[in-house]
Specification:
The chain is mainly β. The chain is built from one helix and 24 strands. The strands form five sheets. An eight-stranded mixed β-sheet has the order 2-5-8-11-18-21-23-24. Strands 1-4-7-10-17-20 form a six-stranded parallel β-sheet, covered by helices on one side. Strands 3-6-9-12-19-22 form a six-stranded parallel β-sheet, with no helix packed on it. Strand 23 and strand 24 form a beta hairpin. The longest helix has 22 residues. It starts with a helix and ends in an 8-residue tail after the last strand. The model has no long low-confidence stretch (mean pLDDT 87).
């Protein structure tokens, strides 16, 4: 009996968190799982789109490795974050000035940062400018990828389908489909045959 009550309470909390995102303007497909209080900030004229059965984990109850809640932020009008159907993100930070697209069945681990913008410009007279115009280049992440914890994915890169990005990797160039990437800066090699989809 106590287990059933607990399950009802948990489902109610998921519904409350999902409603909160909808009220902020997030477009959500069917049966999205919003575990914990995700941080969402949307610039006017931008959009965040969650496909069917997307999971957003922002609570240690969902993932004990979490240190911070998931964060979805659009920075400029026209910016778009798309999490396609069945993908899942745990305690990661996704910020778009242009477009960030994460493919179906892709999983993103805690502490990962996906950021498509360049905020600081260099001036020979003054050095690095703190307040300069953001310029974004889209980040496209394919289907069925696994992105480990504490990765950094930088502007303008494409990660192909069926890739594995090892924990702590910095991605500053494209990764072809069916590869594993590791290190800083990232190197990549073909996935072992037993991990390839096709």
């Amino acid at each position: 009996m106590l287990g059933k009550i607990k399950m009802i309470v948990v489902k109610g909390l998921f519904a409350v968190h999902a409603l909160r995102l909808r009220l902020k303007g997030v477009q959500m497909g069917r049966s999205c799982y919003i575990g914990g209080r995700a941080r969402v900030r949307m610039c006017k004229g931008s959009q965040i789109v969650l496909g069917d059965e997307v999971a957003v984990h922002s609570s240690e109850r969902c993932n004990p490795l979490l240190r911070l809640p998931a964060s979805l932020v659009t920075l400029e009008p026209g910016a778009c974050i798309e999490l396609h159907s069945h993908c899942g993100v745990s305690g990661c930070k996704i910020e778009a000035a242009s477009r960030i697209s994460i493919g179906e069945y892709t999983i993103v681990g805690p502490g990962t940062v996906i950021y498509d913008a360049k905020e600081h410009q260099y001036s020979p007279e003054t050095g690095w400018l703190c307040r300069s115009q953001r310029t974004g280049k889209p980040i496209i992440i394919g289907k069925r990828c696994f992105i480990g914890m504490n990765c950094i994915i930088l502007k303008g890169v494409t990660i192909g389908d069926d890739c594995v990005i090892a924990a702590g990797t910095v991605i500053n160039k494209d990764v072809p489909g069916g590869h594993i990437a590791f290190g800083n800066p990232a190197q990549y090699s073909l996935l072992p045959e037993h991990l390839r989809q096709g």
